[in-house]
Amino acid sequence: MDSEDQLVERTGRAVPSRIGKRARGPLRLGIGDDAAVIAPSGHSEWVLTCDQFLEGVHFLADSHPPDSVGYKALVRATSDIAAMGASPRFFLLALALPSRRTGAWLDAVLHGIGRAARLLNLGLIGGDTTEIGKVSINITVLGEVESGHAVMRTGAKPGDIIYVSGKLGRARLGLELVRNKLTKTPQFRALLIPHLYPRIPLRLGVWLARHRVPSTMMDISDGLSTDLARLCRASHVGARIWAERVPHAAIPASLLRRLPQSRLDPLQLALHGGDDYELLFTVPPRQAKRLRRAPGFRDLTPIGEITRGKRIILLGADGAGSILKSGGWDPFRRR
Amino acid sequence: MDSEDQLVERTGRAVPSRIGKRARGPLRLGIGDDAAVIAPSGHSEWVLTCDQFLEGVHFLADSHPPDSVGYKALVRATSDIAAMGASPRFFLLALALPSRRTGAWLDAVLHGIGRAARLLNLGLIGGDTTEIGKVSINITVLGEVESGHAVMRTGAKPGDIIYVSGKLGRARLGLELVRNKLTKTPQFRALLIPHLYPRIPLRLGVWLARHRVPSTMMDISDGLSTDLARLCRASHVGARIWAERVPHAAIPASLLRRLPQSRLDPLQLALHGGDDYELLFTVPPRQAKRLRRAPGFRDLTPIGEITRGKRIILLGADGAGSILKSGGWDPFRRR
Fold this sequence. Notes:
CATH class of the largest domain in chain A: Alpha Beta
Helix content of chain A: 25-40%
Shape of chain A: globular
CATH topology of the largest domain in chain A: Phosphoribosyl-aminoimidazole Synthetase, Chain A, domain 2
Order of helices and strands of chain A: HEEEHEHEEEHHHEHEHHEEEE
Number of domains of chain A: 2
Oligomer: homodimer
CATH superfamily of the largest domain in chain A: PurM-like C-terminal domain
């Protein structure tokens, strides 16, 4: 493996970073010393989260393009910052790698991290590198939010409308293509994007927090059924979801013919598929019309409402209700 | 494995943490939401660092007591905060574990982390847990320092006096006991402590930064020879070290009889042994007398001086000089 200094240099070339220099803005000292130094302004609060992206658990080093591995590692970690309504600012990167992954593979991973960092406006300010048997990417992200504006999971009230951004289940559909080795089929290539290169609705999250529209907000990383249950638990409430309103991915007939159909019900993917990184938030009814000014308003869907009690009910088209069980899962995760 | 919620609860019992509650001080929101929120004051800067502590690289899960694994993981990460002269405040903990390590072993690790957190005055504000084949402990630490007072590696000038705190090589001596399976021998037990439960000179670091005594400072984590070379590179200077002055561990004759002597020259351990987490700093001569008021002044040793040029020279008792090569190493690390 390169020396740690060489790795820092390679990383610095691929990823927006400040190496040891004083910079404008809140960053006082970047990579290269014992630690980074930031000088916050008095008007904002800092939001912090960390996330692991591990070979064999979250990605397959031989099946997933390394550029996607790097990109997704940073996007996943940053999704939690967006979910607070904060703007991403800085990140720290701890890498552990086997020596055979330190050449071109690592360069591609760093390229993917760099691409995500530019998209998310993140600067690398620190890290650590070690040699080990399996790839592990650990990322800590710092975001900034106007004081008192961070949107939490607590505070949803009965009657609040439940919204989601985007369409759900698209990442899970892309994963099915990887698992069934259909990644080279040109007609399905676009369906892979949400799995390999997810986008997060950053501008929407910041807008919602700034205008104090939602009562609660979180990202959908483990599937709607799992994450909505977490939101309800944190707020001590229940929910009622209209199955027909849950925005889901369209599955082309040509793909259905190639895959075992039982696994690919669009509603099931939307309810339980993870990795979408869309926003889930609740809005008091009197605030709902303010949403029209939100960036990406057309991609927002009201899917249900918060209820008293603690159950989450899924209402079918016929009006019949059933309890929605948390079914979010990651097929790589051994439980 | 327990559910993530149960793990968060177990961690919260063992480690000082704020679970989802608003708290006094800069912490606005702790564990349990998408991310933690801190509200910094305008007078201070935040110092950030991350560190990996990995099974088979930094510790042996079957040889090292799990309490020490947890303790040391947090102390190592925090050492970089102390090295900036900052006070530790908060940390994030990302754990990856095989399922057979999630029972009593994990409880002992968490106990060790909790012990270190109380000693270092650190609160846990976030984390992530995943199941995987080998143990990986990833820690991000945030410290706070008065604006403009963080002490960096750049800025050492020719003539500055080089100081170290404590005695060097003690952690490496303890490691030799582990490697030679002498951990159960009662007479050697005290020699294990610096390896298993290192202390970091936190108060000293904070005092030095507050009084602006040193021109540069860093911690000695990879051995004096390696870390001094880093400091000199960052400051574009060289150094002259008096071998006789380097404070080293005493090795009992009874231990020398039990171990291959060639490995245990006290000066070699002090120069190249890692894991000591003592402070290495440089002081302009006119500032040196102010050091007398430093906490732990008696444990400080001037070992040499900064020179023009880029070489690091080790001067023997006879006045003969030789180039000091970076020899710090970690026997678990495969290179």
